[in-house]
Design a protein that fits this description.
The complex is a heterodimer. Chain A is mainly alpha-helical. In chain A, 82% of the residues lie in helices and 0% in strands. The chains are: A mainly alpha, B alpha/beta.
């Protein structure tokens, strides 16, 4: 292959690589700037309302967890009872 | 000769790179272990004096003073001293109004002949009125959590602790691209850098606000040096050289209003760079010869003191690499060495970006670190800032000029809207 063609191809490859590198580097930033979805700064939640709403959320989640635990225990118990019947 | 200089520069930048990676890994390793260094069984509630220097802060002073009246620290154990530093606006009048409704708040008015000499001067004036065992400092544009005083002062139960520093969070982050990038820098600087330095027993820094000192220690050190632009860095080093340490308290959080324009960013960072360089001249030899600091702390102290030289060194390495490449230096003719040197030189020190990314991840900010690549531009912007600061400092030393005058950061008060929402 002639030297000039090789040099041209190398130059094109380098330029493409550079453009690709820049795109990969800055594309996420461009997406975020155009359509910001970041949640924003950490909130200092020492206001009473903030604390109460967080406490409510926590108790709701806990009651859901307890219900889920009970459902699992019932299932396991039913499986154990079936296995016991099989043994006998 | 050029090759040797180039290699020395690369070696210095490598030291900073290793330092930042060690910090990142330290914080990741200690995730979930909590911030408190003081056992929960210890209740330590000394008397506290809170200093708030304010010069033309009418848009924000009301917000912090209202917050001071909401603090949960025992009412009879703290005082708030607002230093109205020759303000030309309604700062003094607003502060007086709060002082009338809240007995904990006092206002010290400075006239034109006394005031406008910089933050250090204002703080020294306030210190003379302070009665507390502990002195805390807050800038006028800050908004702390209600229990911040307890969280900060309990660390003084340890007699080795001479000063404390809390965490700063940018309040007006969504305002502009500048505020978003500054917020990222803050996340890296506090969530990772400061925390790691504290965990490793290195040099945690008092940042000038959201922190404080033992009053007797501060007075014995001669209080703040009014000739230094970075009075916070200066006092930090004097605390360490006196045999005490600064404790970083990550859960003592406080909002701040970040600079909103590139011009304001320049002014602020210029002041920080020049002040930091002043401290490097003042303290480098003291740190090296100190018997109160261990080897690890000395190394970190020197690296921290000279951190604002890094952008200048990066620029120097880029300049030197050009003749080295063009003249086909024998060192660089080894093909394998060109690629890593080139990559390293191009991005300068990439390790701080890992700190920012890690800090954002630990804060649960899954989209914030999409902007990390833009920090490259703030790094490039810091090159002329630090270079000018260095040149101006050298000229002032050679020509015997007085220290640059203090250009305070203007605050718009737009952060108020983020608190209300």
């Amino acid at each position: 292959m002639p030297l000039e063609t090789t040099s041209t191809m190398m130059f094109v490859a380098l330029a493409s690589g550079l453009v690709g590198f820049i795109l990969i580097m800055f594309l996420p930033a461009l997406f975020e700037l155009r359509n910001p979805k970041d949640s924003g700064p950490r909130r200092i939640t020492d206001e009473v309302d903030g604390i109460m709403s967080q406490a409510k959320m926590a108790s709701l989640e806990r009651s859901e967890e307890i219900q889920l635990d009970q459902a699992i225990i019932k299932k396991v118990a039913s499986i154990i009872s079936i296995l016991r019947d099989l043994e006998s | 000769m050029l090759e040797i200089i180039f290699l020395v520069l690369v070696g210095i930048m490598l030291a900073y790179l290793v330092r930042h990676y060690v910090f990142t890994l330290t914080v990741l390793k200690n995730t979930g272990k909590g911030y408190t260094n003081c056992p929960h069984t210890v209740t330590f509630e000394p008397s506290v004096s809170i200093l708030i220097p304010a010069c033309n802060e009418e848009r924000v002073i009301g917000r912090i003073l209202k917050r001071m009246s909401e603090l949960s620290y025992p009412i009879n154990k703290f005082q708030v001293i607002v230093i109205d530093d020759a303000s030309a606006d309604a700062t003094g009048a607003i502060a007086d109004q709060f002082a009338r409704s809240c007995s904990r708040i006092e206002v010290l008015h400075r006239n034109q002949s006394e005031g406008r000499r910089g933050k250090a001067s204002a703080l020294n004036a306030g210190l003379k009125e302070a009665k507390g065992e502990v002195v805390l400092c807050f800038d006028a544009d800050y908004y702390p959590n209600r229990d911040i005083v307890q969280k900060l002062v309990k660390e003084f139960a340890d007699p080795e602790v001479g000063a404390v520093q809390g965490r700063v969070i940018v309040l007006n982050e969504p305002k502009s691209l500048v505020t978003r990038l500054v917020a990222l820098e803050r996340i890296g600087g506090y969530r990772v850098d400061q925390e790691a330095r504290d965990k490793l027993g290195l040099i945690a820094q008092f940042g000038g606000t959201v922190g404080g000192f033992r009053r007797d220690l501060l007075e014995s050190l001669g209080a703040w040096d009014e000739s230094i632009l970075a009075e916070d860095t200066d006092i930090t080093y004097r605390v360490y050289l006196a045999g005490y340490r600064v404790r970083y308290v990550g859960d003592a959080e406080c909002y701040e209003e970040a600079v909103e324009t590139w011009r304001a960013y320049w002014r602020q960072r210029y002041r920080w760079s020049r002040g930091h360089m002043q401290c490097a001249f003042k303290h480098s030899w003291n740190v090296i010869t100190s018997r109160k600091l261990g080897l690890k702390s000395k190394i970190d102290a020197i690296l921290l003191l000279h951190v604002y030289y890094v952008p200048i060194l990066v620029l120097l390495s880029w300049i030197i690499s050009v003749p080295l490449v063009l003249n086909s230096s024998p060192w660089l003719s080894l093909g394998w060495s060109v690629i890593p040197f080139s990559i390293y030189s191009f991005v300068g020190n990439s390790a701080p970006f890992f700190e920012v990314g890690t800090g954002a991840f630990l804060d649960g900010r899954t989209r914030a670190y999409w902007l990390i690549s833009l920090l490259m531009f703030t790094f490039l912007y810091n090159i002329p800032i630090c270079t000018k600061a260095f040149v101006d400092l050298m000229l002032s030393k050679i020509l015997g000029r007085k220290t640059a005058s203090w250009h305070k950061t203007a605050h718009s008060g737009d952060g108020n809207s983020y608190i209300m929402s």
